[in-house]
Automatic annotation (TrEMBL):
It is an enzyme of class 6 (ligase). PANTHER family: SERYL-TRNA SYNTHETASE (PTHR11778). Its EC number is 6.1.1.11. L-serine binds at residues 230, 261, 284, 384. The keyword Ligase applies. This is serine--tRNA ligase. GO terms for molecular function: ATP binding; serine-tRNA ligase activity. InterPro entries: aa-tRNA-synt_IIb, aa-tRNA-synth_II, aa-tRNA-synth_II/BPL/LPL, Ser-tRNA-ligase_type_1, tRNA-bd_arm. Keywords: Aminoacyl-tRNA synthetase, ATP-binding, Ligase, Nucleotide-binding. Residues 131-412 form the Aminoacyl-transfer RNA synthetases class-II family profile domain. Gene3D superfamilies: Bira Bifunctional Protein, Domain 2. It holds the Pfam family tRNA-synt_2b. ATP binds at residues 261-263, 277-280, 350-353.
Amino acid sequence: MPFTLSDNYCYKYETLNNLRSEMLATRQRLNIMNKQMKSLIIQEKKKGVDHKEEKITTAKVIKQLKEPLERVSEKCNELEDALTAEASMLPNLIHTSVASKQKLVKYLNPTKEIIDSKLDDFPLTRNTKLDHKDIMERLGLVDFREATRVSGRGWYYLKGDAALLEQALVQYALKLARNCGFKMIIPPSMVKTDITNACGFRPRDQNNEKQVYELTADDTSSNRLCMTGTAEIALAGLFSNHEFKEVDLPVHYVGVSRSYRAEAGAAGRDTRGLYRVHEFTKVELFSWVKGDETVSMKEFDRLANFQMRFIESLGLTARVLIMPFNDLGAPAYKKIDIEALMPGRGAWGELTSVSNCLDFQARRLTTQYRDAKDGKLRYVHTLNATACAVPRVILAIVENFYDPQTDTIVIPEVLRSYMDDKERISKQ
């Protein structure tokens, strides 16, 4: 749904401009009167002339000018805050390839049925025997019941080889990222709300549903801490109020963190098992590049190719999609998702996402670089991409590689060296 400004936005803006003009005229007159007062004082000292009456009159005029000036200034600040708050809700521009519906780019590791169908939206049928929750609980790999008792719904214990599988996925994703020139970083999982807002994430969505956990220990603070739903937020904030030299760009980081998502409005969605949880481990890629669309779109393609190689190397069947404009979120100019085949769910499920935010976040975070040619300050472009959202990748591995004959899960070959060279996960 397109975002529109309120009906009285233009009226507020016009009022603000009128008040600014009024303030400017008042300040100019105030400057004249202040100079006049200064001149009277100098004349008294140098020439011994008594300007008592003139000074009293001038002082009264100065006072009369100052009082309304303060009120008008306060009104201007109020209007500026209101206009800025509303304007900050405006989303980014949209790339020409983005449409009203998702578009298939390609399939990864397609099955024969997918190839033969020649369909852009291959229909799936649910196979309850491959449900990851049932399989993992039976094999002793996850405990939702005790986690619900301890923490509430949407939390879980990963146990045994499932916990080892998480670490294997993290280490494998980090290794691939380092090999592609990304520097390692472990960011904080809590950030100030102004950083969250600047990145285009808000504690509550348009329906006032809670999306981000806020810490409320200090209720007097106007800039509370939020628990991040992705390392993207803390990484974007790393260079807030920062000026790069052009020669220092691009900058690439890969961060691993725990991520937290309240998703209070998720009732009725697919919340079974590991698909939609409140806390999870995520490996995130983040890039800062020159403020040139050609440069940032080239980086966008590089990040998307990294994700495709990662998913393909795990042997997972997936589809690559250009997401529609109503699925971009506020910061994204273009977004590509990779969704894996999840037979136990009977649906495709999002594993990764890559977004080019152009200068949307950089403007709000004041992240700039000095142009080497003309010396002017320009805003960088920021891009973020999921390297590995661990629970969903585990879900996809379980539902695609479970062997009912042996009641075991086949471990993807690329992960085995991180799992004590095991080939299968069996009952713990």
